[in-house]
Design goal:
- The chain is mainly α.
- It is built from 12 helices and 8 strands.
- The chain has one domain.
- A two-stranded antiparallel ribbon has the order 1-5. Strands 2-4 form a two-stranded antiparallel ribbon. Strands 3-7 form a two-stranded antiparallel sheet.
- Helix 2 packs across helix 12.
- It is globular and about 55 Å long.
- The two termini are 35 Å apart.
- One of its GO terms (biological process) is fatty acid biosynthetic process.
Length: 299
C-alpha cells in the first residue's frame, strides 16, 4: 500500500496498515503502577488540601503543559515564544507523565501520518472495542512492518534541555514529589503525582477514543482513514483539546475552539501571552493553507 509523507514522517515505501500490536513493558508498568497507587492510596490518603493540589496541578500541566506547550507549540508550532517560556511549558507538559518531548512528537506524528492515509491500522483509528482500545493505547504500540522515516527538526534534536527531559521524563516526578511531600506529606504526593498522572493519561485516551469515532463535525477531510469529531461537553475539562474535529481540519491552528460557544482555555492562555508581548506568529484557520479535501458542514 502506498502512502504520503506528512511533516516529520517521510514515506519510505511505508504501509500504515500492516503491523502488529506490541506490549511496551515500561509504558505499561508506569501507567499500571500510577493507577494502582491512585485506586488504593487515593481513598486512604484523601484530604481536601490534597484534592485541591490534584485539581491545580492537573489544570496547570494539562492546559499550559500538554495542550499549549507540547501540542500547540512543540508539535505544531502554531505560535512562537521565547525559548525559556517554551522550555517551561514543555516541562509542564512532560510532567503529565505521558512521555518525553521527543516521544510525544513521535507518538503524535506517527498517528497523524497514519490517519491521513486512505487506510490505517486499527490502533491508530481507535476502531476496536472500548476495553481493547484502552489496553492498546495505554499499554502498547504498533510495530509497523514498513514504517515511515521519522525526521526530527535539528532545532529540537540538538536542544540539550529536551534531550535531558527525554532521558529522564519519568524521574522528573521525583523533584515534584519531594516538594509535595515537604509541603503536604504523603497525601499531597499520592494525589499530586499518582492520581494526577493516572487521571490525565486515562482522560487523554478517552478523548482520543471518542473524538475519532463519532460526534459533532463542523468539518470533514476527504480520502483519509480517520475523521476527527468535536466533544463540546468536554471543552472545559480538556482545555480545548476535545474539539478534535476542528483540529483535524486546521491542525496548525493555535485556536482549537473555533466555533461560537466552544470554550478553549488553552487559546485564552496563548492570547494572554500575546497581549504581554510573549507570543507571536500565531497561526489561525484563516491564516493557514486549508487541508486538501477539507469540506465544511452545517453547524
Amino acid at each position: 500500500m502506498s502512502s504520503i509523507s506528512t511533516g516529520r514522517m517521510i514515506d519510505n515505501s511505508s504501509d500504515p496498515v500492516k503491523g502488529r500490536v506490541v506490549w511496551m513493558p515500561a509504558k505499561s508498568i508506569w501507567i499500571t503502577a500510577m493507577t494502582l497507587i491512585a485506586i488504593i492510596g487515593g481513598p486512604l490518603t484523601f484530604t481536601w488540601s490534597a484534592f485541591a493540589v490534584f485539581i491545580l496541578l492537573t489544570a496547570i500541566t494539562i492546559c499550559l503543559g500538554h495542550s499549549v506547550g507540547m501540542h500547540r507549540l512543540l508539535i505544531h508550532r502554531s505560535f512562537s515564544t521565547h525559548i525559556w517560556i517554551e522550555h517551561f511549558l514543555v516541562y509542564l507538559g512532560m510532567l503529565v507523565g505521558m512521555a518525553g518531548p521527543f516521544g510525544m512528537i513521535h507518538a503524535h506524528d506517527i498517528r497523524d501520518w497514519a490517519q491521513r492515509q486512505r487506510d490505517c491500522h486499527d490502533l491508530y483509528a481507535h476502531r476496536r472495542s472500548f476495553f481493547i482500545d484502552a489496553f492498546w493505547q495505554m499499554h502498547c504500540i504498533v510495530a509497523l512492518d514498513h514504517p515511515p522515516r521519522f525526521v526530527l527538526e535539528e532545532r529540537e534534536r540538538r536542544d540539550r534541555f529536551y534531550r535531558f527531559l527525554e532521558a529522564t521524563w519519568m524521574a522528573q516526578q521525583i523533584p515534584l514529589g519531594l516538594a509535595l511531600f515537604t509541603l503536604g506529606g504523603l497525601p499531597w504526593v499520592v494525589w499530586g503525582i499518582a492520581v494526577r498522572i493516572s487521571v490525565s493519561l486515562t482522560g487523554h485516551w478517552l478523548v482520543g477514543h471518542f473524538a475519532h469515532r463519532a460526534g459533532h463535525q463542523g468539518w470533514s477531510v476527504d480520502d483519509v482513514a480517520v475523521q476527527g469529531y468535536n466533544l463540546p461537553r468536554f471543552g472545559l475539562v480538556t482545555f480545548g483539546e476535545s474539539f478534535h474535529g476542528n483540529h483535524h481540519a486546521f491542525p496548525d491552528s493555535a485556536r482549537l475552539g473555533i466555533e461560537p460557544g466552544q470554550l478553549d482555555l488553552g487559546w485564552y492562555f496563548i492570547r494572554l501571552l500575546a497581549r504581554l508581548g510573549l507570543a507571536s506568529a500565531i497561526k489561525l484557520p484563516h491564516t493557514i493553507v486549508p487541508r486538501r479535501g477539507l469540506t465544511r458542514h452545517c453547524v
